[in-house]
Amino acid sequence: MTYLETTFSILFNASVASTVILLLLLLIRKLCQKHLKPRIVHILWFLVLIKLLVPIAPQSPVSLFNVLPQTFPMEWDSGQKSKQPIHLSENGSNPEIQSNDADVQKKLPEFTLNLADEPVPSVVSRSSQDHSPVNKDRQTWLSIGSLVWLIGFLGLGGYYLFCALIFRNRIGDSIKIEDAEVLTALEACKRKLNIKKRIYAYETSYLRSPCLYGLWKPRIYLPEDICTIADPSQLTHILMHELVHYKRKDLWFNSLWALSVGMHWYNPLVWLSVRKMKADQEVACDAKVLETLGEREALPYGKTLLLLSRSFSQQPRPGINLSHFGDSKYEAKWRMMMITKFKEGSYKLSAAAILLVIVLGAILLTNASDAGKDTGLDMAEPSVNPGLNLYPAYNDRFRWFHSLDRALDFPKYNYKVPDYLPEGYHLDAISYYKNVTNINDTDPILDVASVTFVSNFGQKNEQTIEVKASKGKGNLLEEGELRGAPYAQIPPNPNKPLEYRQEAVTIGNVKGTLFTEMRRDKKKPETGKSFYWQDDNVWYAIDYYSGYMSQEDLTKMVQSFVKPKEVQHVRYDGAGNSFPLYDERDLLAAKNILGFKVKIPQELPGLNLSGSVLLRAGDQNTRYGFRQTTDALWTTYRGPDDSSTNVSLYQSKEPLFDVSQLSLTRTLEMDGIAISAYEDKNHVYLSSDENIQLPYYVWKQNDIYYTAVFWGMDKLPEDSLKAMISAPVQ
């Protein structure tokens, strides 16, 4: 994701969050404004401004957003995530698992589809890097939205600048007021407000309402003839009002609001809020004036406002940062009502009011805490609809994902990911798995999140870097999960030397332990290494081989770990890669990619659903015996646990298998559908065992191509084929 897209994503989330606060404040303003002091209302607007201008906020357990749905889980962000699933050899095994600890291989049957020679996503070292199927479209819309936002931001900024230049040009011929009466009143007002800065008053024919203008060189501009119409008392009211705007820094405050409007120009609620804020600003300014002059001046001050609203008032010019004394008739009426209710001390803040502001700031300006939301994932069950389990072969002990945003949808403790990768690497896979003593254990020894990155995918010089995050009563060393110490001795055997070396090191600013494998893998001329450290109660490891990255790259990678929502430089979206279907969300994404409704029978005669995977054409996260040239849904079924019977059902818009390379054995018809049976005598596709001839059944139904491949069937599979043909689409 580019910096522009990241900026827009963050601002958009802040805008949505601010909308919640704006609605709340507008409701409070509507219901309670008569009971709230004007200054309190204006301070509440300041809290909203902070939220609009500072999109990144600290987390708090008392945040309002702990009880509200999160805006966008940064999957807009989130565009910052990219994953690619599993790499398998042609016989369905995982070469990295083969070179690792035997205990890891023991887990494999529990998590693979076990389809004889059919390649299957395997587990532990190589998680899946699938991409959330709709991420590609999201990324496109995010790019378009970012450009539209930038054009709007620059356009609005240009408009403000143009208006400011025109305004400065038109007031350039204003006449500095030298009238003794005006100057005396101005100085008297400055003394009462304890203003030391030199501020001049000017007379102009361009304006029809008194105003203050200028951030660094503030000047008071009075309409022509106002000095002759207004008496000394009214003149004092006018000058005092404008000086109070200066004293309260309202012009600076308004400038920040103008910036917030530019940043969130697409949010109509922000524009509305600016209007309401300026009305409240004038009321607060009136209260400060009367607090300074005394309650006895309330009625004369109201008459001055009435005079100006009738004779000189005008709407503020758009795009100009002014503080007008007079406003629209509606606002003038509202201000008159507040002036008549003014009481001595109404501008001052009580201890209770200050406490209210502090509490509201803690509630409104902070983000939902991990402790309040995400950390609860540690104890939660997977977020899968129990009514639609599309991958029963996988369970809570292991899951693989093609993208980080999809992985984060499933319960897991909070962990960080690298925001830097050596050149040429990209996300390969993400997997969650639990190490247990036996299959029935509910309390795992170790809970692991594994993120794998790959370079030169599918080539002979393919290289991988694996990042692991873990929690639990065990550790990665004891479980043999470190590439630098794959043959850990737990407990150490004094009669046998260790097959790894460990040393305390500091890489960048991170203290940890570097493990170096002493027993070379014959297939890997490089030396296995692991840097292992702890951060916020989570243990991290970077597993790599010595030739896969330099010390400089390792340092940059270690220092780059951030929360997933803060990633800016590494893609974790896994665009274009295959992914498993766990629930309705994956099913909907698969149908959007395929462009048709799919068939996923929950069972076939004597066979149970094992799992479904969307195969993407040209993906970089699977290694099957053949490379599919079109997107397809692959659904697998298997017999009882002691059976070797397995069935694969493929469905796609275009033929997935080239039947000209297969041998036709027979044809049959079921429910009006013609089916052709083939054998792969030359082992072009799924089986490399010369003693195995897998039957392929191919048919076309409602313009969709289906292929069913059977393993270990003792009888003709007509019943299963009939169930597939008659199965409804979903």
At a glance:
The chain is of the alpha+beta class.
Throw out a few tags for this protein:
17 helices; alpha+beta; about 725 residues; Phosphorylase Kinase, domain 1; 3 domains; Zincin-like; Protein Transport Mog1p, Chain A; 9-stranded antiparallel β-sheet
Structure description:
The relative contact order is 0.13. The protein folds into three domains: 95-136 and 376-566, Phosphorylase Kinase, domain 1 (2-Layer Sandwich), CATH 3.30.200; 154-267 and 285-328, Metalloproteases ("zincins"), catalytic domain (Zincin-like, 2-Layer Sandwich); 579-726, Protein Transport Mog1p, Chain A. The longest helix is centred in the first third of the chain and has 36 residues, at 135-170. The chain is built from 17 helices and 24 strands. The two termini are 34 Å apart. With 730 residues, the chain is an alpha+beta fold. The strands form four sheets. Strands 16, 17, 18, 19, 20, 21, 22, 23 and 24 form a nine-stranded antiparallel beta sheet that branches. An eight-stranded antiparallel beta sheet has the order 8-9-10-11-15-14-13-12. Helix content is 33%, strand content 20%. The model is unreliable at 70-135 and 370-386 (pLDDT under 50).
